[in-house]
Every structure is written in structure tokens, then in C-alpha cells.
Design goal:
The complex is a heterodimer of chains A (95) and B (495).
Chain A: H1 3-12, H2 19-36, H3 71-74, E1 79-80, E2 86-87
Chain B: E1 2-3, H1 9-18, H2 23-41, E2 44-47, H3 49-64, E3 76-80, H4 107-114, E4 118-123, H5 157-164, E5 170-175, H6 181-187, E6 190-193, E7 213-218, H7 221-231, H8 249-252, E8 261-265, H9 267-270, H10 275-290, E9 294-298, H11 306-321, H12 339-350, H13 353-366, H14 372-394, E10 399-403, H15 419-424, H16 430-435, E11 439-446, E12 452-459, H17 464-477, E13 483-484
Parallel strand pairs in B: 3-4, 3-5, 8-9, 8-10
Antiparallel strand pairs in B: 1-13, 2-4, 5-7, 6-7, 6-11, 10-12, 11-12
The chains are: A mainly alpha (95), B alpha/beta (495).
């Protein structure tokens, strides 16, 4: 794994990485990926994927609307201004 | 270590049921003890004093009114901080969720409250459950009560340490690849990972959704049985929750191991297991033989592939689950010039190094050109590992016996800069996780340095009762339960 690979994954994962982090991560991730490559020695041609972790009955509930959480519960930790509007932090920096 | 007075959950419940007053005082004593002891341990991230006192008062009122106060009446329980607690902080040990107060209780928490348990606070952990030493908490590391220079294991290190130090008699942890069993082993307590689906994940903040499993950590198998009794069972809010009847786990404690076949897989002892761990396990097998079990050598040939397969699958799921933390919906937000930059900056500053490493690994193994080579292959290897277990159970083995960890608690800082070494420390617990099977870690002795050693028993799907019965039989036949970290031996533990 090269430094540019790690940079590309960082972009895909929406994680900003400094040059210093890129150096360390390139070395660490290469070692880990190399270790994971041991799985290549197994013949899995006829092996199905495990459909799910247990093979037991997990019934689904009926698809009917039900009451949701109350307004007060959901907005418990939010500030409300004098006009009754919810105050939230800005997403992008003010210019 | 020194002998101690042990108070089980059953005795605590009896006291609560028979005393019309005194429970609030008793809970206050528990909270004071936590305050006094936890400074040196770091097991708690948040203590809910008003909530705990109110719960105690409610139970006292129920008792006074001759109403049933519940199966766990008056039992102080700590909750790992990745389980939602209504109106109480739920940070997952991460800056990303600092200041997040869920508007609902996880099903596990709701069921504990319904059973009369007193939720005293939230327990420290590796950030989002990603770690095996509890050093990756964004707030503070947890220290092992047996030796503060050693890790308590992880990611439920706060849960294991709080029980081991006698702060609380029971804690709820979560186990994705060993996060209940390995810290239980390092701290000398019992930790049970139930079958995947036996306990609801509703309200558990997801790390790897196909593997995450909540379960109890207590000093005894008997206490674990009581906690499991309260939290197990189908939950319509979790579509992976299993619709099987919950057995009477307390009654199952009397099953013992007579005429049971215990399988010992050679692969778990082949490489890297400390000699003193191996010797402790050998002595434990001797105890089981005396208790009437038949010991059989078995093989689980794909064991060595569990670590790479797990770290591909779990990290792939983690990369997907962590995508929700972009600063717009939960907790921490870093402001930037545009929206995409804000996401990237939020995630750089909000996540710790291990979470970032795992997200990157997970993104890599799912990315175009690599998915077949890594993720798809690991899913098929998972099938092989599950079939290994099926083969031995179909062949008449009742329980698989292994170490919980190849070594006792390692020094703080030893593995934190070497992530691969940290991953490899999970070698004993990962196979049962990948197969979705129940497994329990039970203290079985001490190293020359005075650190606890744990044995692991793995059972058939939904066979938690067999595990608890075997663990109880072992604890009744051995003296390990009588030991407590020496710095806290003078106090009465549990409350």
C-alpha cells in the first residue's frame, strides 16, 4: 500500500489526514493488509458466504406506523430561541 | 491478593426486598465507594447520582406497598457507554459523541430498570468499542485493579475493572470480537457473550452490527445468570433478535458438567500462549475431569484465519456505521469553508487514531478492486470457521475449552503503537464471535505476577445455560472467587 493509496482512501472515507498521519498510516496499514493476505491461501471456491451470524428465526414486526419519540425527548439537549426555532451549530464557517 | 467477603446479587436483592428503608443509604454508599476508588481506576465516564437515588427510592416504595420490586431489585449496575441511556450521556468513549444525550433507553437498559436494577452510571471503553486495552478511550485510560500499570483489556475495560475493584456487582458490556471476555479475563471476573441475537442490540451504538452482542460481567456465573435472565429475549425493535424462549438460567446453574464432553482444540495452544496460562488451563481441565466431564482433544482447523477475517469484516462494517458521524447529526462538529471539508475536518478531529485506522481499513477492503480479495473472501472464511464448530458439536462435544487470552494483562502502552499486535491479542475470542456462538470467560488462576488468568468455554448456539452451569460448577470447586485486588481487600465489596 502506497502513500497515495492511503490519501485516496482518506478522501473516500471523508477523513482529513496530515502528511505526518499519512506516513504513519501507510506503514501500519501496509503491515495489516499484508497480514490479512494470509486468507489467500485457503481454497474458498465452493464455499458460500455466511448468510448471517446466527441461523435462528428472527421474526420481523409488522410494518405498521407507531407513535414516535416525543418532541421534548428528541430535542432535550437543543436550545430554542424566542421565536420557537431550534438553534443548531453552523455547518460551514461564517464569512 | 487476599480473601474477601463476597456478596452475590441474590443476597443484594433479598436485602432490598426485605428492607423497607435503607436502600437509598446503601446506594449512596455505593456511589461514595465509586467516587473513592475510581480515581485510581478510571472505569466510569459518568455517574448518575440523582437517577440512582431516585431508583432506590422507587424500589423502597414498591417494597413498602408490597409490590414486586423485580428480579434485580436494588442491584447497582454500570452500563458500558455505547448503550443508550435516556437523558444521560452516551459518548462511546469518543469526542465525537461528547455532549450527546439519547432520547431513549437501549432495550437492555430498559429491561434492567424494569427488573429493579439501579443504573449508577456509564462505563469507560475503547472508542466505539474499537480496541483491546481500553487505552483508546478519548477521555482517560482504564487501569487494571490488580496492577495499575497493566491494561484491563477492552473494549469493555471499564465494565470489567469496575466489577473487579468491587465498585459494582454487575456491569453490562458489549462483545464484538471479545470485548466482554478478554477484559473479564484480564480483571479476574466472569464475562458472558451471549449468542448473537439472544440479547437485543436496540440502543447499542453500532460498531460491527453483524457481530455486536451485549452481555453481563459479574464476579460469579450465578450473578451473570441473574443479569442475563433480565436482559435476554426477543425484542421487536431489533430485527436480528432471536424469537426463542428464555430458559431459567438460575435453575441451569445446577446442571454441572457430569457426563458432558469438553473439547480442547489444539490450535488454541499451538502458538503464542504463555506457559503459565497453559498450566492454569491444564489445572482447570483437571478440575473439570474431577467434576465428571469427559475431556476430548479436538481440532478447529481454521482458527488461525479468524484474526484476519474478523478485522476485515468488522472494519468493513465499522467504516459503514461510522459514516453517520459527519458533524451534521450527532455531537462534535468542526466548522470549515464548505460542507465536504467540514465532514473531513470533523472526522479528523472527532475520531481518535484507532477509529480512523479502522475506518480506513474498512474503506479499503470494500473499495473497487479489493472487495472480492478481502471482504468477500473473509465472509467465506467465516463460513469455514462456523462449520468447524458445527463439526465438533455434531460430533458430541458439548463445550469447547480454550484460554480467554494467550497471556494475562499486558503493560499499559505496550501495544498501543503496534495495532497489528493489538489485533492479534484477540486470537482466542474471535472465532466464537465470527460463528455467533455464546462464550464465557471464567477466572482460573493467577500468573506469577499476580495477574488473573481466564478460561473460555464456547457453547452451541443458544446454550448459555450450559456455559453458566459449567462456569458455576468450576467456581464452586475452586478458590479463585475468594481473591480480590489487595488494595481494596479491607472493604466489603459489592455495595
Amino acid at each position: 500500500m502506497e502513500k497515495e493509496d492511503v490519501r485516496r482512501i482518506g478522501v473516500l472515507a471523508h477523513i482529513e489526514l496530515t502528511e505526518e498521519e499519512l506516513e504513519v498510516l501507510t506503514s501500519q496499514l501496509s503491515e495489516i493488509i499484508n497480514y490479512m493476505s494470509v486468507l489467500r491461501e485457503i481454497d474458498i471456491a465452493s464455499m458460500p458466504r455466511l448468510p448471517r451470524t446466527n441461523q435462528l428465526s428472527c421474526p420481523l414486526r409488522s410494518d405498521k406506523p407507531e407513535p414516535s419519540s416525543g418532541f421534548v425527548d428528541v430535542f432535550l439537549d437543543r436550545q430554542i430561541d424566542d421565536d420557537g426555532c431550534l438553534l443548531v451549530p453552523s455547518v460551514v464557517a461564517a464569512k | 491478593m487476599t480473601p474477601r467477603k463476597t456478596i452475590g446479587i441474590g443476597e443484594l436483592v433479598e436485602r432490598a426486598r426485605n428492607e423497607r428503608s435503607g436502600l437509598v443509604t446503601s446506594v449512596r454508599e455505593t456511589l461514595s465507594r465509586i467516587a473513592a476508588v475510581d480515581e485510581a481506576v478510571g472505569a466510569f465516564l459518568h455517574i448518575d447520582r440523582p437517577g440512582a437515588e431516585e431508583s432506590a427510592l422507587r424500589i423502597q416504595l414498591a417494597v413498602s406497598a408490597a409490590r414486586d420490586p423485580g428480579l434485580l431489585a436494588g442491584v447497582p449496575v454500570g452500563i458500558k457507554d455505547n448503550l443508550a441511556t435516556k437523558g444521560q450521556p452516551t459518548t462511546c468513549g469518543s469526542r465525537m459523541l461528547e455532549g450527546y444525550f439519547p432520547p431513549y433507553d437501549a432495550t437492555v437498559v430498559r429491561r434492567l430498570k424494569r427488573a429493579g436494577a439501579i443504573i449508577v452510571g456509564k462505563l469507560n471503553m475503547d472508542e466505539f468499542g474499537m480496541g483491546s486495552s481500553s487505552e483508546y478511550s478519548a477521555f482517560k485510560p482504564v487501569r487494571n485493579p490488580w496492577n495499575p500499570d497493566r491494561v484491563p483489556g477492552g473494549s469493555s475495560g471499564g465494565a470489567a475493572a469496575a466489577v473487579a475493584a468491587g465498585m459494582i456487582p454487575a456491569a453490562i458490556g458489549t462483545d464484538t470480537g471479545g470485548s466482554i471476555r478478554q477484559p473479564a479475563s484480564f480483571c479476574g471476573v466472569v464475562g458472558l457473550k451471549p449468542t448473537y441475537g439472544r440479547v437485543s442490540r436496540y440502543g447499542l451504538v453500532a460498531f460491527a452490527s453483524s457481530l455486536d452482542t451485549p452481555g453481563p460481567l459479574c464476579r460469579t456465573a450465578r450473578d451473570c445468570a441473574l443479569i442475563l435472565q433480565a436482559i435476554a429475549g426477543h425484542d421487536r425493535r431489533d430485527s436480528t433478535s432471536v424469537a426463542e424462549i428464555v430458559p431459567d438460567y438460575l435453575a441451569a446453574l445446577e446442571r454441572g458438567v457430569r457426563d458432558k464432553t469438553i473439547g480442547v482444540p489444539a490450535e488454541y495452544f499451538d502458538t503464542g500462549t504463555d506457559l503459565e496460562v497453559e498450566n492454569a488451563l491444564r489445572r482447570a481441565l483437571g478440575v473439570y475431569e474431577k467434576l465428571g466431564a469427559k475431556i476430548e482433544r479436538i481440532s478447529l482447523p481454521h482458527t488461525k484465519y479468524a484474526v484476519p477475517a474478523y478485522y476485515i469484516l468488522a472494519n468493513a462494517e465499522a467504516s459503514s456505521n461510522m459514516a453517520r458521524y459527519d458533524g451534521t447529526r450527532f455531537g462534535f462538529r468542526a466548522s470549515a469553508a464548505d460542507l465536504v471539508s467540514s465532514y473531513a475536518k470533523t472526522r479528523r478531529l472527532g475520531f481518535g487514531p484507532e477509529v480512523k485506522r479502522r475506518i480506513l481499513l474498512g474503506t479499503y477492503v470494500l473499495s473497487a478492486g479489493y472487495k472480492e480479495a478481502y471482504y468477500s473472501r473473509a465472509r467465506r472464511v467465516q463460513t469455514l470457521i462456523q462449520r468447524d464448530f458445527e463439526t465438533v458439536f455434531d460430533g458430541g462435544v458439548d463445550l469447547v475449552f480454550t484460554p480467554s487470552s494467550p497471556f494475562p494483562a499486558f503493560p499499559i502502552d505496550e501495544k498501543v503503537a503496534d495495532p497489528l499486535a493489538m489485533y492479534q491479542a484477540d486470537v482466542c475470542t474471535l472465532p466464537a464471535s465470527l460463528a455467533g456462538l455464546p462464550a464465557i470467560s471464567v477466572p482460573c488462576g493467577f500468573s506469577d505476577d499476580g495477574l488473573p488468568i481466564g478460561l473460555q468455554l464456547i457453547g452451541r448456539s443458544m446454550a448459555e445455560a450450559d456455559l453458566l452451569g459449567a462456569a458455576e460448577a468450576y467456581q464452586q470447586a475452586t478458590p479463585w472467587l475468594e481473591s480480590i485486588p489487595s488494595q481494596w481487600s479491607a472493604r466489603e465489596v459489592s455495595r
